[in-house]
C-alpha cells in the first residue's frame, strides 16, 4: 500500500490537527499556557493529505520567489512565549519515541558532521533509546525576527486571535495576499532594547555592543543573518539573551536538502544522497520547539506517512466494480439459463400439442 505525507501541528502530541500545507492564510493557531501563535508549512510539489475542507495546493508562491526558490520545505512559526526564556534554553529540533539505531543508514556520521557544519550549535544523540537533535531556535532557523511590544501588551490578551488583531502584532509573512511582509526578515536587534519614553532603544548595559546590535538589524539580510549566527554562536551570549512575554518571535526554518514527498536527503557537499524510505521505521518525524531546561513544549509540527486514502478508494472502487461485474455476469448466466429452460419447455409443449393434433 502506497504511503502519503500527512503534516499536523499543535501544542502537544495529543492535540495535533492536520495542517493546510501551502496555504499561508490558514495556519494552525496554537493557544496554550506557554505559547500563543500560529504555524504554517510549505512543501514543494506537495501531494499529501489536505486539511479538511481545504483544497490541496501543490505549491506555494514562496517557492517561486528568489527567497525560497532553492528550498524544498519551510516551517514558519510566529508567537509569544508566556514566560521569559533564554536563547540557550529555547530550542528547536527533532525527538523520537523509539530507537533509531537499528535503522540509521550507512553514512549517518557524515550527515551529522554536515549538520554540525551548517549549524555549529546543534546537539544530538541519535543512538539513544529516545533519539533527539536540538539547536537553539534563534540560531538554527534560516530567518529570525523579533518584535518587542511595550511591557504588558500581550498579557492583556487571553487568546492568540485577539493578539493577531492588535495593531502591535506584526504581519504573518507571506508573498500571497496583502501582507506587508512577504518573507521573514532577519532582525533580532529588538531583543537587546528596552522602552524609554515610548521609544525602543539599546539597553544602557549594552552600549559597548551597539555596533554589533545594529548589524543584527541591518536591512541587508546577508549582514543581519551573518551577525546573528556570529553572536549566537557564543554560548554565553545565548545564555544572556532573554526572550520575554513582550516579544513576538517569527521564524522560518527551511532548506533544500530534504524532499519529503520522495523521502530523499541530499547533502550538497560530497554528493551524498539517502533514500530515506528504505530506512523508515514507522515513526513520525516531529519538529519540536521546547524549553530544554524545563521540558515545556511550545509547539510541534509532525510529518507522518499514512495510507493513501485516494489509492484505497480507487482500489476499493475497482474491487467493487469487479464484484459488480462478476455478479452481473452470474446474473446474466442465470437469466440466460432461465430463458433457455423456458424456451425448451415451450418447445416441448408446442411439440406435444402438435402431436395431439396429428393423433386426432
TrEMBL record:
Residues 5-306 form the Domain of unknown function at the cortex domain. Residues 311-360 are annotated as: Disordered. Residues 317-326 have a biased composition (Polar residues). It comes from the Eukaryota. InterPro entries: Duc1. PANTHER family: UPF0590 PROTEIN C409.17C. This is Domain of unknown function at the cortex 1 domain-containing protein. It comes from Malassezia vespertilionis.
Amino acid at each position: 500500500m502506497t504511503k502519503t505525507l500527512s503534516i499536523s501541528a499543535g501544542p502537544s502530541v495529543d492535540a495535533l490537527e492536520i495542517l493546510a500545507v501551502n496555504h499561508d492564510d490558514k495556519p494552525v493557531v496554537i493557544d496554550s499556557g506557554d505559547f500563543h501563535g500560529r504555524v504554517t508549512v510549505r512543501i514543494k510539489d506537495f501531494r499529501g493529505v489536505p486539511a479538511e475542507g481545504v483544497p490541496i495546493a501543490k505549491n506555494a508562491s514562496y517557492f517561486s520567489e528568489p527567497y525560497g526558490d532553492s528550498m524544498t520545505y519551510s516551517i514558519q512559526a510566529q508567537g509569544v512565549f508566556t514566560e521569559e526564556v533564554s536563547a540557550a534554553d529555547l530550542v528547536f529540533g527533532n525527538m523520537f519515541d523509539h530507537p533509531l539505531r537499528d535503522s540509521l543508514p550507512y553514512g549517518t556520521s557524515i550527515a551529522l558532521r554536515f549538520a554540525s557544519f551548517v549549524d555549529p550549535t546543534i546537539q544530538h544523540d541519535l543512538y539513544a533509546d529516545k533519539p533527539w537533535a536540538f539547536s537553539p531556535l534563534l540560531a538554527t532557523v534560516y530567518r529570525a525576527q523579533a518584535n518587542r511590544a511595550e511591557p504588558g501588551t500581550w498579557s492583556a490578551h487571553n487568546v492568540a486571535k485577539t493578539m493577531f488583531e492588535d495593531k502591535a502584532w506584526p504581519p504573518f509573512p507571506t508573498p500571497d495576499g496583502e501582507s506587508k511582509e512577504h518573507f521573514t526578515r532577519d532582525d533580532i536587534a529588538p531583543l537587546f532594547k528596552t522602552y524609554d519614553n515610548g521609544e525602543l532603544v539599546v539597553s544602557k548595559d549594552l552600549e559597548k555592543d551597539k555596533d554589533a546590535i545594529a548589524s543584527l538589524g541591518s536591512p541587508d539580510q546577508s549582514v543581519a543573518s551573518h551577525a546573528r549566527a556570529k553572536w549566537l554562536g557564543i554560548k554565553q551570549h545565548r545564555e544572556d539573551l532573554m526572550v520575554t512575554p513582550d516579544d513576538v518571535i517569527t521564524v522560518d526554518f527551511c532548506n533544500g536538502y530534504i524532499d519529503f514527498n520522495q523521502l530523499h536527503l541530499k547533502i550538497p557537499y560530497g554528493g551524498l544522497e539517502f533514500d530515506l524510505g528504505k530506512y523508515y521505521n514507522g515513526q513520525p518525524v516531529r519538529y519540536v520547539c521546547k524549553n530544554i531546561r524545563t521540558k515545556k513544549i511550545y509547539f510541534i509540527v509532525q510529518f507522518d506517512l499514512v495510507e493513501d486514502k485516494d489509492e484505497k478508494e480507487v482500489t476499493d472502487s475497482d474491487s467493487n466494480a469487479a464484484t459488480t461485474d462478476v455478479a452481473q455476469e452470474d446474473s446474466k448466466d442465470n437469466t440466460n439459463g432461465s430463458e433457455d429452460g423456458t424456451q425448451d419447455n415451450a418447445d416441448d409443449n408446442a411439440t406435444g400439442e402438435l402431436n395431439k393434433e396429428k393423433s386426432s
